[in-house]
Amino acid sequence: MTNTLSNNPPEWVEHQRFDTHQQWVNRASCVLAAHPRYNEGINYSEPSPFKAVCFDSKGRLCRNGGDMARARDEDAFPVYWLWPDQIGAVALGINPSQEQSA
Fold it and tell me: Pairing relation of β-strands 17-18 and 79-82?
């Protein structure tokens, strides 16, 4: 099965990526908590239910540092991320910003 995101990411997702493991180390805590809904309606002592989903260039889910290290070791960067409200658009092959303006 071909993973659309890893093999041919939509143009509107191209900026949502880490090109290297070091870039992930340096930027992930800021970038992956930047969505306006990230802290919506939660108790700050608990993890956010609105989390980005990361995939390496081989289409594998990257959930933690070990997965990111595997991507580094197996030359599987860039790693792309999607917000929960973007997953359906990627699966359907649509651009959500075009859908909202239509």
Answer: antiparallel
Number of domains the chain is built from: 1
Residue 55: Cβ-neighbour burial (10 angstroms; 0-12, 13-18, 19+) = buried
Residue 35 domain flag: yes
Residue 40 forms part of a structural domain: yes
Domain extent for 42: 13-101
SS3 18: strand
Count Cα atoms within 13 angstroms, Cβ side, for 35: 18
With contact defined as beta carbons under 8 Å apart, do 18 and 27 qualify?
Answer: yes
Read off the pLDDT of residues 55-102 as tens digits, 9 standing for 90 and up.
999 989 999 999 999 999 999 999 999 888 887 777 777 776 665 544
Query: CA-to-CA distance for 35 and 72, rounded, in angstroms?
Result: 25
Mean per-residue pLDDT for 3-12? 59
Asked whether residue 95 is domain-assigned, the answer is: yes
pTM: 0.72
